[in-house]
Amino acid sequence: MTSVLDVPGFARLLGTSEQDVERTCGDLIRSCDFRYAVLDRAEFEKNLLEVTRTIDGENLPASGEQRRGDWEKGWAGAREEFIKSDYDLNALVPKYIDKYGVKRLYSRYIRPLARRFEEDFYTVYRHYLFKTWAGHYGDVYEFGCGTGYNLVIMARLFPEKRLFGLDWSEQSVKLVNAISAVHKLNLSGRRFDYFRPDYGLGVPENSVFITLNSLEQLGGDFQPFLDFVLAKRPALVINSEPFIEMYDESDLLDRLAARYHRKRNYLNGYLSALKALAEDGKIKILKMQRVSFGSVFHEGYSIAVWKVV
């Protein structure tokens, strides 16, 4: 049986009202093919076995500072592809998006009918996230900006804002600056090392800090960046990341996702640290939402929005 991820479905995922989703991205949702089918038992068991074998195998690279060279090489390839495509912004979509045919939705395995299901989901998701949380603030700083494709969406939504793409990869910085120069967008790239934050970075009042699937690469080594954020006191912080604390490990697929998360050494302890800071009165958490959608392995789009008190 075929189902569809529609406005009510997005409202459920994002923890908001249907009216809120309709207002921010209803037309965009209807322009995409979000039909899918839940896997039958045979397909479910086949994928479950494949996921388990992958997690138990030896080919999953662990995140961390040692992967700096891998990311430099990866974003160099993305920059070359962008140039070869005659600076087509569609070339900026990272290769890990829609890498696997089967997805996770509400702790079930699903098979989308459209190849670009996850890419389209992420486009809708980012429009909602940026319009809802970043629209009323000033400068925006995206840390771990990669190919810059999140910045492109923000530049189109908020042409009046100054946007800054920060990444530890020199190739990423060059790519962001090339996007700005060719497409005349109000954004600029700057090198930033999560493990050794640059306290010389100027942050005007009313600025927003954003991370999207980049803090995941820190494992448990997030404290230097968290200390940096607390010191810089942006008006708002938006984190869209895989948060291991949000899984219910009494659920089979959540338990596997948590195992995968640990095997990859993804972000661990950050959400708990935010909750502790909130209890101490040092920050105020405005939203904390599990977004129950992701790849066959895990969920990477959950939300934490907060501000320094």
Strand and helix layout:
Elements: E1 2-4, H1 7-14, H2 18-30, E2 35-38, H3 41-56, H4 68-84, E3 103-105, E4 108-112, H5 117-133, E5 140-143, H6 149-157, E6 163-167, H7 170-183, E7 187-191, E8 208-212, H8 223-232, E9 236-241, H9 252-263, H10 270-279, E10 283-289, E11 293-295, E12 302-308
Parallel strand pairs: 5-6, 5-8, 6-7, 8-9
Antiparallel strand pairs: 1-2, 2-4, 3-4, 3-11, 9-12, 10-12
Q: Strand share of the residues?
A: 15-25%
Helix proportion of residues, in percent?
40-55%
Rg computed from alpha carbons, rounded to a whole number of angstroms: 19 Å
Biggest sheet descriptor: 7 strands, mixed
CATH topology: Rossmann fold
Task: Give a written overview of the molecule.
The chain has 309 residues and is an alpha/beta fold. It has one domain: 3-Layer(aba) Sandwich (Rossmann fold). The longest helix has 17 residues. The radius of gyration is 19 Å and the shape is globular. The relative contact order is 0.14.
Provide a compact summary of the structure.
This protein has 309 residues and is of the alpha/beta class.
